[in-house]
Amino acid sequence: MNKPLFTKDYWEQAWQNDPNTAIKKMEKAGQGSYQSKGFENWAEKFNADSFSAGGIKRTKRIITWIEQQTGSFEHLSILDVGAASGVFSIPFSKKGAGVHSLEPSSMLTSMLEENAEHHAVNLNIINQSFEEVELDKYGTFDLVFASMCPALTSWKAVEKAISCADKYVYISLMAGAKENKLVEELMPVLEVEGESISTDMYYLLQLLYVNDYSYQSLIERHQKTTSMSLDEVGNNINAWFTDYNISLNNDQIQEAVEYLNDMYGKDVPVTTGGKFGKVLIHL
After folding, report:
1. What is the architecture of the domain spanning 3-178+196-223+274-282?
2. Residues linked to residue 278 through DSSP beta bridges, in sequence order
3. Cα distance between residue 30 and residue 281, in whole Å
4. CA-to-CA distance for 281 and 283, rounded, in angstroms?
5. At 241, which helix (H) or strand (E)?
6. Domain residue spans in the chain?
7. How many angstroms from the chain centroid is the CA of residue 88?
């Protein structure tokens, strides 16, 4: 039996040195950061989606899963890491929790302030990144919460989250490669093949196990289909192929757009999804 497989150092180094995790691929492509090109459009869409009927349903599903383990949120102190425009901070507050909302993007912080006022909730908003914030001055929290947050994609960051939590830490991440039916349709047309991409959730679960933490986890597959204009698809197609570890040149992008125009016209159905994992660490 390979004894290093059961050590913290083995898995921590493997996570740190893996160049094929989704987050590292996004960073190489200039994505996944509030300072990246196109972030403003993404933030506006994310804010709208968060408080749409579908977004509210998703939030409720996640909060219910946590409540089944923690009980009521009444009087619970929560640190929401990567709070964005309040998709979780606001419902947490409505349930009676005291919420510190940590968000590095000034644009999303402004949206968060507006949404908090609109929903008549009080939030302690901190416009800083998780990497830079000094959490000692805020004390500890009953629950540290990070949903699909790029800041929680290293064991060092997870340890920081654990260090400021009294009872629970919630982390959700992709549990497999992103899936895009349009890209999969286009790959044989463009005569390209994708490469495997590993997942941060895999390393997280291994490290929680070898460090003897108690936790509950759930892996689910979700998909959604939206209609996008041909122009929108053309603007996003290179980023979508990056998720499959494929870089397209301008000629390939043009060929893809022409194919989609012939197949679908000006409105293109885009089905995206994948496996998503969430874990609640019990301290």
Report:
1. 3-Layer(aba) Sandwich (3.40)
2. 172, 218
3. 31
4. 6
5. helix 230-242
6. 3-178+196-223+274-282
7. 13
- Strands 77-81 vs 141-147: parallel, antiparallel or unpaired: parallel
pLDDT tens over the chain, length 283 residues: 566 777 889 999 999 998 877 677 766 666 656 666 667 887 888 889 899 998 899 999 999 999 999 999 999 999 999 999 999 999 999 999 999 999 999 999 999 999 999 999 999 999 999 999 999 999 999 999 999 998 998 999 999 999 999 999 999 998 988 889 999 999 999 999 887 778 899 999 999 999 999 999 999 998 989 899 999 898 889 888 888 888 899 999 999 999 999 999 989 999 998 999 999 999 9
CB distance 239 to 219 below 8 Å: no
Which residues on neighbouring strands pair with residue 127, listed in sequence order?
A: none
What predicted TM-score, i.e. pTM, was given to this entire model? 0.89
Polymer length of the chain: 283
The span from the CA of 138 to the CA of 109, in Å, is 19
Handedness of CA 169, 177, 24, 61 (dihedral sign): negative
